[in-house]
């Protein structure tokens, strides 16, 4: 499943693992959130920063509320569920890879996970934040759908063809020719079986 994660999510997962190791615990949703606030260059980081959620705030809330994953190593069930939900969201949107914004979406849709509770304790309107993430996901989906339009490969002009024009008359079925120029036709076909 690691191959399905985009570059941004891979960076977050690696950072979450290091953070969890430093805290001597397994990986929980709070480690995903800490990693998101520490991993610049991702959409999740930008969204959180825009909403005044930063690494120091998350650390402070963790220490004041003694929020901690209750496993010593590996992924917590909560973390696994978030990754599965992020994957489902990416698949639903027909995104090839699971990116940081999908993981943030998964957190914001799970009221029971610790990361959601931390964001809520920061004093941010979680519903508003969730709507922002959903808008961004829709924009990404639309831009990907629009990018799948036909772009002619380089070199079309070399053949004297406009890729956006209709097919030259000499290329019509039953009318053989080279580059739109018709060859001499014979009264009887030499390949009658293929002409049918």
What report would you give on this structure?
α1 crosses α2 (29-38). The protein has helices spanning 7-22, 29-38, 43-50, 55-65, 77-92, 100-108, 114-122, 126-147, 192-195; strands at residues 177-178, 181-182. Strands 1-2 form a two-stranded antiparallel sheet. 54% of the residues lie in helices and 2% in strands. It contains nine helices and two strands.
- How much helix, percentage-wise, in residues? 40-55%
Query: Major sheet, described briefly?
Result: 2 strands, antiparallel
Low-pLDDT runs: 149-186, 189-196
CA-CA gap between termini: 51 Å
Gyration radius over CA:
27 Å
Q: Choose one word for the global shape.
A: globular
Total number of helices: 9
| Biggest sheet, spatial arrangement of strands | 1-2
What can be said about this structure in brief?
The chain has 196 residues and is mostly helical. It has helices at residues 7-22, 29-38, 43-50, 55-65, 77-92, 100-108, 114-122, 126-147, 192-195, and strands at 177-178, 181-182.
């Amino acid at each position: 499943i690691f191959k399905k994660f985009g570059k941004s999510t891979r960076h977050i997962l690696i950072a979450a693992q290091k953070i969890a190791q430093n805290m001597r615990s397994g990986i929980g949703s709070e480690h995903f959130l800490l990693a998101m606030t520490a991993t610049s260059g991702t959409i999740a980081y930008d969204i959180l920063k825009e909403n005044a959620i930063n690494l120091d705030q998350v650390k402070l809330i963790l220490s004041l509320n003694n929020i901690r994953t209750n496993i010593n190593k590996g992924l917590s069930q909560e973390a696994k569920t978030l990754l599965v939900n992020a994957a489902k969201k990416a698949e639903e949107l027909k995104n090839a890879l699971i990116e940081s914004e999908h993981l943030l979406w998964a957190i914001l849709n799970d009221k029971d996970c610790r990361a959601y509770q931390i964001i809520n304790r920061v004093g941010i309107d979680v519903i508003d934040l969730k709507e922002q993430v959903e808008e961004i996901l829709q924009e990404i989906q639309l831009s990907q759908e629009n990018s799948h339009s036909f772009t002619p490969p380089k070199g079309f002009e070399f053949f004297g063809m406009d890729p956006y024009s209709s097919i030259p008359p000499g290329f019509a079925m039953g009318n053989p020719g080279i580059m739109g120029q018709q060859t001499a036709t014979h009264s009887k076909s030499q390949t009658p079986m293929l002409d049918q």
